[in-house]
Design goal:
Layout: H1 2-25, H2 27-43, E1 51-53, H3 55-68, H4 71-81, H5 87-100, E2 111-119, H6 126-135, E3 138-143, E4 150-154, E5 160-163, H7 177-219, H8 227-238, E6 242-244, E7 248-251, E8 263-274, E9 282-283, E10 291-293, E11 299-301, E12 304-316, E13 321-327, E14 333-340, H9 346-353, H10 358-363, E15 366-375, E16 377-384, H11 386-391, E17 412-414, E18 419-425, E19 446-449, E20 454-460, E21 465-472, E22 481-483
Parallel strand pairs: 2-3, 8-18, 15-19, 16-22
Antiparallel strand pairs: 1-21, 2-8, 4-5, 4-6, 7-8, 7-17, 9-12, 10-11, 12-13, 12-15, 13-14, 14-20, 16-18, 20-21
Length: 484
């Protein structure tokens, strides 16, 4: 009996050690997203417009490509992502981090999804597709043809989905009409049956999804939610419909632009995030608090939010900026804001940030009672960082040197690397306030006023991963496609 107890204790100790080791090893994704965040911000430093992207989204796409890359092509991807040699560790870590973005019991989690579509006439190694599905939670499908534009829409749970249509190839007119007609009819009949089955399956899946959601909500009775707030947010989420140009994996001898018959497969992802704060903001009605300086001289009027509470803030002397970390409800995700001390200091801040560890910034912050003034904004960016990655050493995958033989024996290269991200930052709502404005009214407060261009980062605190990064030049403007 004593031996059994000792064995149990030893087993628990090993589990704790292994858990700690996994947490330590998972830092490579954090390092990779940190480097991608600062590198891409620097690459778009000359763009005088708002910009938002997902370092984790690009990281997962590049990791997916590294699974099928060989030789120097793989080495370049491994270097920029800081991947360890242990493939099992890489796969398990990405699976864990990406999986948490799909779990409904995490409050305020971003919606990130990746798709890998293969045209019917091309074959992809089955083991590669299995890896994508199991470890990178990627939707893998075979399609006839995808139009050059793909729409993204959100359902009630704000999950991003592509809406695509397929085209069937016309029959060759030189073949005998009777044979083609018979074959075409049979094929069409099969397609009709398949479509009916698909519609039935989609209806069943939707029913099961709704039932699952009801069960999930029943299990989470301890989490307080507001039906009105949920309804409000759902209506806003349904309004997010956008167009994205798909990433193309093409033949290595192809120099085409846009989706064409030379395209073999497409790989892309999209992210949507609209979170609620742990300490909600209110809209400021003071006209003196609605000013935002686009430059030293140019001033515009914006909708400004205000809140009070205990926040991690500090001055980062190395970067000549001020920083604040604002938690979302649930505490897993936070927004870090870097505000240059001068109104025209964003370009210098962005340049100085290249290669800088964001973890160092977090370690320099201290908890202070603070009044925060922040402009509302809602940005959507479709970005193409190909030239930035090439300058950072990721070159082979876009060239004739590409070795993607782990995907298929055919000679392939990556045509484009395009991503869509939508982020909404507003006053939010919460049923559980850690500290209200009334609680801190009698204390001396720091003031953090965001009234000129700034950088922001949305971080997964538990995994130390940068989910979203961006810069705000004008809170009143939407934005579209950015490429270099």
């Amino acid at each position: 009996k004593l031996y059994a107890i000792l064995l149990t204790l030893l087993s628990l100790s090993i589990q704790k050690i292994n858990g700690a080791a996994l947490q330590f090893d998972s830092n490579f994704v954090g390092e990779g997203t940190n480097e991608l965040a600062t590198t891409l911000l620097q690459g778009f430093v000359e763009e005088d417009k708002n910009f938002v992207f997902s370092p984790l989204g690009f990281s997962s796409i590049l990791a997916i490509l590294s699974e099928g890359a060989r030789g120097e092509t793989r080495n370049q991807l491994v270097n920029i992502l800081h991947l360890p040699e242990d493939t099992y560790s890489v796969r398990q870590t990405y699976k864990g981090i990406l999986g948490e973005l799909k779990e409904k019991y995490f409050l305020n989690h971003p919606q990130l999804k990746t798709w890998f579509y293969v045209y019917k006439n091309y074959s992809v190694d089955q083991s590669y597709k299995d890896v994508l599905t199991e470890y990178y939670l990627t939707e893998v499908a075979t399609v006839d043809r995808v139009h050059s534009e793909l729409s993204f829409e959100t359902d009630d749970s704000t999950e991003i989905k592509p809406v695509y249509t397929t085209e069937t190839e016309e029959s060759n007119s030189t073949l005998t009409g009777e044979t083609n007609s018979s074959s075409s009819d049979a094929t069409q009949q099969k397609m009709d049956i398949k479509d009916e089955k698909k519609k039935h399956q989609e209806k069943t899946d939707l029913q099961e999804s709704e039932n699952s959601e009801v069960e999930q909500n029943t299990e989470l009775k301890t989490i307080k939610t507001s039906e009105d707030d949920t309804s409000r947010k759902s209506k806003k989420d349904k309004d997010i419909v956008s167009i994205i140009s798909a990433n193309r994996i093409v033949g290595r001898n192809s120099s085409d632009t846009g989706i064409s018959p030379n395209s073999k497969m497409i790989l892309f992802n999209g992210l949507f995030f609209h979170g609620d704060w742990s300490i909600p903001f209110t809209i400021s009605k003071d006209k003196d608090e609605t000013s935002f300086y686009k430059s030293k001289e140019e001033k515009i009027s914006v909708t400004t939010m205000m809140t009070k509470g205990d926040f991690l803030t500090g001055e980062i002397d190395d970067l000549d900026c001020e920083a604040i970390e604002i938690p979302y409800e649930g505490g897993k995700y936070t927004m870090l804001i870097l505000l240059p001390k001068s109104r025209d200091g964003l370009s210098k801040l962005t340049s100085d940030l290249t290669g800088y560890s964001l973890s160092k910034i977090y370690s320099d912050l201290d908890l202070h009672p603070t009044e925060v003034y922040l402009p509302k904004f809602n940005f959507q960016t479709i970005s193409d960082p190909r030239s930035i990655l090439e300058k950072s050493g990721v070159t082979d995958i876009f060239s004739e040197k590409a070795d993607l033989s782990g995907i298929t024996p055919e000679e392939l290269k990556l045509g484009d690397l395009v991503q869509m991200v939508t982020v909404t930052v507003d006053e939010g709502s919460s049923q559980t306030n850690f500290l209200t404005a009334t609680d801190i009214g009698a204390r001396d407060n720091f003031e953090f006023r965001v009234d000129h261009p700034f950088l922001f980062f949305i971080r997964d605190r538990t995994n130390n991963v940068i989910i979203v990064a961006g810069k705000v030049m004008d809170p009143t403007c939407d934005n579209g496609f950015l490429s270099t």
